Amino acid sequence: MIDINKVAVVSVRQTLEPAFPDSPIKPSTFPIGRDGEGKYVLYQNGDVTDAVIDTHQSQANRVEPSFDNTGLIPDHTVKSGEDTLAFTELGHRVADAAVRFSDKAEVINTALTAFAKGNTVPLAKLAPTTLLFGAWDSRAEGKGTKVVRQFNSEIRAQNVVEVPTAGQFVSSIPRPADLTNKQLSPEGMLDCPYSGLGGVIVKGDIVRTATLNVRGIRKMTPQTQEYILGLGLYALTYPVDLDLRADTNLVITKSEVSVLNEDGTRETISLTFADAKAFAQQAAAKFGVGETLKFVYDEGKALAKLGKQAEASIKKAEKKDGKAKAAKTAE
To answer: CA-CA 20 to 30 A from 77: which of 59, 86, 162, 185?
Structure first.
């Protein structure tokens, strides 16, 4: 399907438009700046302003759960208290606290240690989507193991105009006497004007790009390459839900799959989701999907480590304070 030794990158480019043309759409918001107020990610692109509509993290969160119950990956679960989560719901994947402090933490450590030494087989057996979407065990002692993502996708809009919004809430009942605004507000009994973000009107194109780094897959242990390639092509062509959030419901008007070859040539190819899924199933059967595990989060392990960190911080502060006092005495 894809010559892993010839191709450098496989990409999908989709042109999108709002379900209701010319209506404002809502980009992702982030607490930017010291005040923590939610804002859009807008930036100048030449003479126009572009916007990030959906980040690569958000896109990964939309695509990764699609692997559940497909037989392509082990369907791990993680139990925390009364809640049970699918492994694909974990924000940091194998580096997530829910599994790092679980009853099977050693299984995670073994796979990450092998990965750090160049062997991707244990991680492909344990958590293959981590090899696609990435993870960083940044809380580990030392530098921690970093798994670079090979799949990347995001949605951007070109030439946007930001739309403000404003309104006035009027309570449906008379204001109770002798109560302060602070007391009334939580109960929805305070007349209140509001203003904020009203989305953006897009004058240019809305484009979703998704890329699969075949070069990165080629660096993996040979035994895992075809399997991860299959999962990557599945993710690349998966019909992701484009009802992103309130007032941001998009439809695809054009879609194109292309490859960048190692010799620098580019070509458009025909690759459907059905084709990619069939290839992924064959590759998974050949590789052998890992055993499904049930992880149980152990709060005691987390508290023990947090306690050690707190103790180390106190000792470090005391040592620093002692040096400062000694220096002052020497003066």
So the answer is: 59
Q: In this model, does residue 328 exceed pLDDT 60?
A: no
Residue 161 has pLDDT above 80, yes or no: yes
- The first and second tokens of residue 230, run together, are 């299959």
Q: Is 151 helix (H, G, I), strand (E, B) or coil?
A: strand
CA dist 328 and 259 (Å) reads 66
The secondary element (H helix, E strand) that includes residue 322 is helix 299-330
- How far apart (Å, rounded) are the C-alpha atoms in residues 204 and 222? 43
- Chain mean position to CA 243: 17
Enclosing domain of residue 178 = 161-197
Euclidean distance between CA atoms 291 and 74, whole angstroms: 6
Across-strand partners of 157? 51, 206
- CB 135, CB 111: distance < 8 Å: no
In this structure, are 270 and 206 located in the same domain?
yes
Average pLDDT over residues 275-297: 98
Per-residue confidence (pLDDT) for residue 174, from 0 to 100: 83
Of 100, 93, 101, 160, nearest to 127 by C-alpha is: 93
In this structure, what DSSP letter does residue 198 have?
Answer: E
Q: What is the pLDDT of residues 217-247, one digit of tens each?
A: 999 999 999 999 999 999 999 999 999 999 9
Q: Do both 81 and 145 map to the same domain? A: yes
pTM: 0.86
Q: Are residues 288 and 305 in the same domain?
A: no
Question: What is the C-alpha to C-alpha distance for residues 264 and 8, in angstroms, rounded to an integer?
Answer: 9
Same domain? 123 vs 258: yes
Q: Which two tokens stand for residue 196?
A: 């904020």
Region class of 152: left (phi > 0), else alpha (psi between -120 and 50), else beta: beta
- pLDDT grade for 57, boundaries at 50, 70 and 90: very high
